[in-house]
Amino acid sequence: MPFAVLSKRAGFLLASGRVSRSIQAMARRNSAGMSDSVYGDLLERARAVVPRLETNLHKGQAGRIGIVGGSVEYTGAPYFAGISALRVGADLVHVFCCQSAAMVIKSYSPDLIVHPVLDDHCAMEKMEKWLDRLHVLVVGPGLGREHAVLENVAALLKHCRHSGIKVILDADALHLLTLDFSLARDLSGAILTPNAVEYRRLFGETKSLNDLREIIGKEVTVLEKGLSDKIYDVTLTNQVYYVPPGGSARRCGGQGDLLSGALATFYCWALNCKQETNPALVACFAASILTKHCNEEAFREKGRGTLCCDMIEQIPKIFRKHFEHF
Ligand SMILES: NC(=O)C1=CN([C@@H]2O[C@H](COP(=O)(O)OP(=O)(O)OC[C@H]3O[C@@H](n4cnc5c(N)ncnc54)[C@H](O)[C@@H]3O)[C@@H](O)[C@H]2O)[C@@H](O)CC1
Ligand SMILES: Nc1ncnc2c1ncn2[C@@H]1O[C@H](COP(=O)(O)OP(=O)(O)OP(=O)(O)O)[C@@H](O)[C@H]1O
């Protein structure tokens, strides 16, 4: 069955509430998609990058993540991303946000370290001393589109290009890229996580890897979110990976933030795992299936009333079931 037809049928099943088993069975038959053996291989590699919980580990060794986002309108998005990174297993999360968002985000969770710097005219100066300690940055959740903030983020991305800090670009950071894609082109190890609309704004109807590579260069991975998440890997394998559809038809806000936070932790681990040759691919796959499983599980309990917080609550259980070492 061609992928477009599969998606349409799967979409119908989701909309009609007959959720995931039949869709996953169809995905296994989908010749354009990911075979069971590729799925199994990626799952095994995802499990292999998860660090063992040893008593001699120091705080921070299992991941120090930065979330760059949070504005007067959007305080939930950086919280969702940050807390998801922690719930997957990162040790420390720093949120770099606008002054107006800082107290609000702190009040959601004492587990997040919050820096009110993003709209400061010395933002880079204030962030710089933290950046080198971080393994991965998620840039964009709840960032907003204020000119001064976007200018600071552009400076941050230039800094990351020089210092080699790995970045995940999501939400409003993708809007920034529509204004100036050179900020991300060939940015080594960067991962872009556009939803359907963001993908169209960035790349139009471009779906072929060769055409995409013309735009992004050879060092950037794209995870296009949708019913079936697509991982465009131009860095090593030169393939598109279709993650099997899953989850429910409930599309509450914040699921992309959960995904980007989870992705940051998996990416940090995969980068740190000497055996893993394609950290971005493995991390994208892991974050994608985790998010879809969390959605499915939360939907089972909360149905139409499912919120992003309900999905985040499911992370430990889903992680233990699919990724934990025993
Ligand atoms: N609680 C919060 O603070 C949240 C804040 N958010 C933030 O809100 C800001 C704006 O994000 P938006 O996503 O609204 O971006 P945009 O303002 O660019 O709007 C994109 C539009 O596309 C629509 N869309 C999304 N997926 C689609 C699909 N598959 N097909 C058709 N239409 C689709 C959305 O409904 C939205 O109207 C970002 O900073 C984001 O991080 C979101 O993450 C949601 C939660
Ligand atoms: N039609 C769909 N059916 C099932 N799952 C979907 C569908 N669209 C997106 N998803 C899943 O939801 C997750 C987030 O994607 P989504 O498109 O909602 O991101 P987003 O718009 O960036 O989210 P946010 O609300 O955080 O900004 C992804 O894991 C994706 O697989």
TrEMBL record:
CDD domains the UniProt entry points to: YXKO-related
CC cofactor: Mg(2+)
Keyword NADP: yes
Catalytic activity: (6S)-NADHX + ATP = ADP + phosphate + NADH + H(+); (6S)-NADPHX + ATP = ADP + phosphate + NADPH + H(+)
Matches recorded under Gene3D superfamilies: 3.40.1190.20
Keywords from the named record: ATP-binding, Lyase, NAD, NADP, Nucleotide-binding, Phosphoprotein
Domain YjeF C-terminal: start-end pairs: 42-322
Domain of life (superkingdom): Eukaryota
InterPro entries: CARKD, Ribokinase-like
GO molecular function: ATP binding; ATP-dependent NAD(P)H-hydrate dehydratase activity
EC number: 4.2.1.93
Binding site for (6S)-NADPHX: 142, 195-201, 257
Single biological process term from Gene Ontology: metabolite repair
Broad enzyme group: lyase
Residues where ATP binds: 225-229, 247-256
Function: Catalyzes the dehydration of the S-form of NAD(P)HX at the expense of ATP, which is converted to ADP. Together with NAD(P)HX epimerase, which catalyzes the epimerization of the S- and R-forms, the enzyme allows the repair of both epimers of NAD(P)HX, a damaged form of NAD(P)H that is a result of enzymatic or heat-dependent hydration.
UniProt family annotation: Belongs to the NnrD/CARKD family.
Protein name: ATP-dependent (S)-NAD(P)H-hydrate dehydratase
